[in-house]
Design goal:
alpha/beta, 8-stranded mixed β-sheet, 12 helices
């Protein structure tokens, strides 16, 4: 995928977020000179855009710096917004590095409907292009649709899929998948998991059990725990990070469904509150619509700036 093509997709995907923020601020700024009341209103706009109270306050203060009792321009607002968002995202923009362990085991967690299984398929395709031998494990054993979906993605990505009948024990499947992946000389093992948050206790025990059986084979496994978040859920994503971090020890994030959502600002709020590495973002359903997270590109897209 060409870099410019990716930028266009990202910019288009975050257009609703940038329009909601900059449009409201410009409306305010065009009517009067900057004062304390306007800065409060700007802060409220940023909070409504899911950027979080702390970051919203910081951005509003930065916009106000040296500009009191003056008219502010659209470009000034965009530049400050992009700069402040980039500052909080730069420390968390980290690639997912496939370490020396083989198979390098990635437990992929997240609520049902977040794009978890699709993300696994896209990651498998990415890793295959990088020359890795990849095995997928259909650990969301309660949903027949998730098992079938993973098989389809496996075929598309040329990765083998370990799956059992719906209702099989997920931890046993994870154990078996690890053994098979190791025996076959696989470089990467991606394990899908259930995401039924309706019953946290059951989900917690299932994920704990999966981690326990993997640790028995390799004390360092799983080598990464990737949480897939759906950008469209806004503030709910914050509580999902808390729940899954507590349950499974999340090591990094992938955010999906940034294509057209007005809730993209939540990624910045998560960065401020949890400081977890952000590895990937997705802006579509295609196999190549997942890319490593770049803080500057994301910040400029949120501010509605050109590439």
């Amino acid at each position: 995928m060409a870099e410019q093509n990716w930028w266009q997709r990202l910019n288009s995907g975050l257009r609703r977020t940038s329009a909601a923020i900059t449009g409201a601020i410009f409306d305010l700024a065009s009517k009067r000179k900057l004062d304390a009341a306007m800065l409060e209103e700007i802060e409220e706009v940023l909070i409504r855009a899911d950027l979080g109270v702390a970051l919203a306050g910081k951005i509003a203060a930065a916009i106000g710096e040296g500009r009191y009792d003056k008219m502010i321009t659209a470009d000034e607002v965009k530049a400050v917004l992009a700069e402040e968002v980039e500052k909080v995202l730069l420390p968390v923009a980290k690639p997912l590095v496939i370490g020396g362990a083989r198979p390098f085991t990635i437990l992929v967690v997240g609520v049902n409907g977040s794009g978890k299984t699709t993300t696994i398929g896209k990651l498998a395709a990415r890793f295959r292009l990088q020359g890795y031998k990849v095995v997928l494990a259909a650990g969301d054993t309660f949903r027949a649709a998730a098992i079938e979906q993973l098989k389809i993605w496996g075929a598309r990505a040329h990765a083998s899929v370990i799956a059992r009948a719906p209702g099989s024990d997920a931890a046993s499947l994870a154990f078996e998948a690890f053994e098979i992946a190791r025996r076959e000389g696989a470089d990467v093992l991606l394990i899908d998991t259930a995401g039924r948050l309706q019953n946290k206790a059951v989900l917690m025990e299932e994920l704990h059990k999966m981690v326990r059986v993997l640790t028995k084979i390799d004390p360092a496994a799983p080598h990464a725990v990737l949480l897939v978040l759906d950008a469209t859920v806004g503030q709910n994503a914050l509580s999902q990070v808390e729940v899954f971090h507590k349950i499974a020890g999340v090591t990094g994030l992938a955010m999906t469904k940034l294509d057209g959502t007005a809730r993209g600002g939540i990624l910045a709020a998560i960065a401020v509150k949890h400081a977890l590495p952000v590895h990937f973002i997705g802006v579509g359903e295609g196999i190549d619509d997942l890319a490593p997270f770049a803080a500057k590109d994301f910040a400029r897209a949120i501010a509605g700036m050109e590439s």
